[in-house]
Design goal:
Layout: H1 6-49, H2 56-100, H3 117-127, H4 134-151, H5 157-174, H6 179-188, H7 195-223, E1 232-236, H8 240-249, E2 257-261, H9 268-279, E3 282-286, H10 291-294, E4 300-304, E5 307-308, E6 314-317, H11 320-329, E7 334-337, E8 357-358, E9 361-362, E10 364-367, E11 374-377, E12 380-382, H12 387-394, H13 398-402
Parallel strand pairs: 1-2, 1-4, 2-3, 4-7, 7-11
Antiparallel strand pairs: 5-6, 6-10, 8-9, 11-12
Helix pairs in contact: 3-5, 4-6, 4-7, 7-8
Length: 406
């Protein structure tokens, strides 16, 4: 029996161990190769098809996730739209409050100051746009002057001027005074006279303003017959003067139609249309968007003025310019009713001088004389370019009045 030596046994064991290691390494290499081939197949599928091969459960889960993501995106868009809508509503409310003057702060008036309560009340109503209209404001201004002079213990107009100026400053802080108010003030204090004579002059001016409106109504209805039977008249916003014109002209034998265009931020057109309808006049109320539809049937455009300057330019409610441009394109005559106390021969350079701006919002448009056919005053009809001559003749001119002591 042969015996193996220890060295031979060790060498055989080493060989067997090496072969086992090689076998295990070979198995691992094959597994790694198989794993690589599977990954390469998956990458090839992703590159070729663009969509990985998923099971039914994975596909359902993926679809649910996609639906959830879409719903979340829609909710986000809706929330954003709601936020933008709320901000727009807030901006509109702020704009309306700004136009109506509710956010404007009045200065603090001391009880023992020289401010008369009538001026303080008038200034507050002007700042809140409760007192609107050039004629109404002018008459109210004269009334405040009379009450202030009666309450004072002064005797001469030269002594009253500082007192009135102090009250006018408060009024200008609330809202810039109109050309008519400025002319009235200068005419009342044109001469140095006693308090009794100043009050009498102020009362005369007030009655003359009312009388001038009556003369214009008579000219429009009787003399020139601009409001005749069967005519279709286009007007804008509210006017006390035009309300009296239409009310006087409307009879059983003289029936006409009035179209009111709303352009004012205060919805004055709706108030005017309602007042005309209550009289019995055939009235149509439209917005500027419907202007082109009705222009074909319009015979003439009749407006009232807030003021007119030396170039013959008309200053009236905002939105009037677009209406007159459309009327001129259709060759429709434009008739402006304006009392002479609202006129000046100066050329307005500063918009604030004619009360065109109210709390940052444009309240008045400037209309060149080219768009005006004729101006009807209490003294008759004149072209718009003749206003400086009329003003100088009637001494409403601020330059002529400035030569006096006031």
């Amino acid at each position: 029996m042969s015996t193996k030596q220890p060295s031979q046994l060790i060498s055989k064991q080493n060989v067997q161990g090496k072969t086992k290691q090689q076998q295990t390494k070979g198995g691992k290499d094959e597994k790694q190769k198989q794993g690589k081939t599977k990954e390469e197949k998956k990458e090839g599928q992703l590159k070729g098809d663009g969509i990985p091969q998923l099971s039914n459960k994975e596909l359902k889960a993926l679809k649910k996730q996609q639906k959830h993501d879409k719903k979340a995106a829609k909710l986000g868009e809706n929330n954003q739209q709601l936020k933008t809508g709320e901000s727009q509503v807030i901006q509109q409310v702020n704009t309306i409050e700004l136009m109506l003057g509710t956010k404007k702060q009045m200065p603090i008036v001391e009880i023992n100051s020289t401010i008369h309560p009538s001026f303080a009340r008038f200034a507050l109503e002007c700042s809140e746009y409760k007192c609107v209209g050039s004629t109404i404001r002018a008459l109210r201004f004269i009334e405040c002057i009379i009450q202030t002079l009666k309450a004072s213990k002064l005797t001469q107009s030269s002594e009253c001027i500082p007192l009135i100026e102090e009250n006018v400053k408060l009024l200008e802080h609330a809202r810039t005074i109109t050309v008519g108010m400025n002319n009235v003030r200068k005419f009342i204090f044109m001469k140095n006279q006693s308090i009794e004579n100043i009050i009498a002059t102020a009362q005369t001016v007030s009655s003359n303003i009312i009388g001038s409106q009556k003369e214009i109504v008579s000219s429009m209805v009787d003399s020139y017959k601009y409001v005749n039977d069967g005519s279709v008249i286009l007007t804008i916003n509210y006017s006390t003067l035009l309300l009296n014109v239409f009310k006087t002209a409307f009879t059983d034998t003289n029936k006409f139609r009035v179209i009111v265009v709303e352009t004012s931020p205060f919805e004055e057109g709706a108030i005017f249309a309602r007042a005309l309808s209550e009289i019995g006049i055939d009235t149509t109320y439209i917005l500027p968007s419907g202007l082109q539809v009705v222009l074909a049937s319009v015979n003439r455009v009749i407006l009232s003025a807030s003021s007119m300057d030396g170039r013959g330019s008309l200053y009236t409610r905002s939105g009037t310019a677009s209406v007159l441009i459309a009327a001129k394109s259709k060759h429709i005559p434009v008739i402006v009713c304006c009392e002479t106390y609202k006129m000046t021969d100066e050329i307005m350079k500063n918009e604030g001088e004619i009360c065109r701006i109210g709390n940052g919002i444009t309240l008045y448009d400037e209309i060149p004389h080219d768009f005006i056919t004729v101006v009807v005053t209490e003294f008759g009809c004149i072209p718009a370019t003749s206003i400086p001559a009329v003003v100088r003749e009637l001494r409403w001119d601020s330059k002529a009045l400035s030569q006096e002591k006031y």
